[in-house]
Amino acid sequence: MTTASENALFGMGNPLLDISAVVDKDFLDKYGLKPNDQILAEDKHKAMFDEIAKKSKVEYHAGGSTQNSVKIAQWMIQTPHKVATFFGCIGTDHFGEILKQKAEEAHVDARYYQQTQEPTGTCAACITGDNRSLVANLAAANCYNKEKHLDLDGNWELVEKAKVYYIAGFFLTVSPESILKVAKHASENNKIFSLNLSAPFISQFFKEAMMKVMPYVDILFGNETEAATFAKEQGFEETDDIAEIARRAQSLPKVNKKRQRVVVFTQGKDDTVATIGEKVTMFSVLDIDQNDIVDTNGAGDAFVGGFLSELVQERPLEECIRAGHYAANVIIRRAGCTFPEKPDFP
Length: 346
Hints:
single chain, alpha/beta, nine-stranded mixed β-sheet, five-stranded mixed β-sheet, 13 helices, 24% strand, globular
């Protein structure tokens, strides 16, 4: 059994500072927000981020899909610290400083590319009762620059140090060339590169970028909705049979023949579907009382984080999935992608 080492897990994505606060209906109306929604910020929302930061009980967390997953992997592993490295772009501002501090508190080795053009990306969670309206402003996260960050010797050395790589599909909209460079490195060195479908719009509108990376993908993650959209966009016939979609995704062309691709699709409370060797296997998730579910938003990121925490320690796939289910089960009992001090994963 291998224990995790520093910088063994590498993640790259869109770092966002999660800002959550309880607001009232007037606040939602003022910015034209629905009580339960996820949207990208428009011009009319720009002032909202400063306003919500002034609320009395505001909470800050290091967020963004990939950063959430590596943060949870680090939490599951506990020690050593800095098993997870994270690259992404932020601004040179107050929110950027908070984000650095929060990443440090999570013991993630975050190496941000800082630029002055755009402010640090933020995601506001406007909470009313049991509802949360999420408004994301990618801002600086969109400005990641391969030449000015990934290619620098000191940074690339951290890429070389890693054994497992994870990038959410969202980053395909920012720097596909950075993803390709990392994916090719993993493939050439027989290391593990994993990608998440992340959202239906990625498979639809960033198909070309995604399919350039796909031959290097050793592990493909997604949920049932993303899988169905992916299947449709790829022209798979059986788009309503998730096991068949997993099988078809597994058999897409692959460069490194030493590793058979693993496809893992979660389905909320329904069984997780995974390709293991030639078989497609179903894994039941942990039971939870509906009344204990507070917020399912971070469940997908948490599943991946739990999975990666075992993968980086070279545990079998079944154990990775069990850890993914455990982490997701913990996260959905809490608001936002937050967790208790220590995991209780047997």
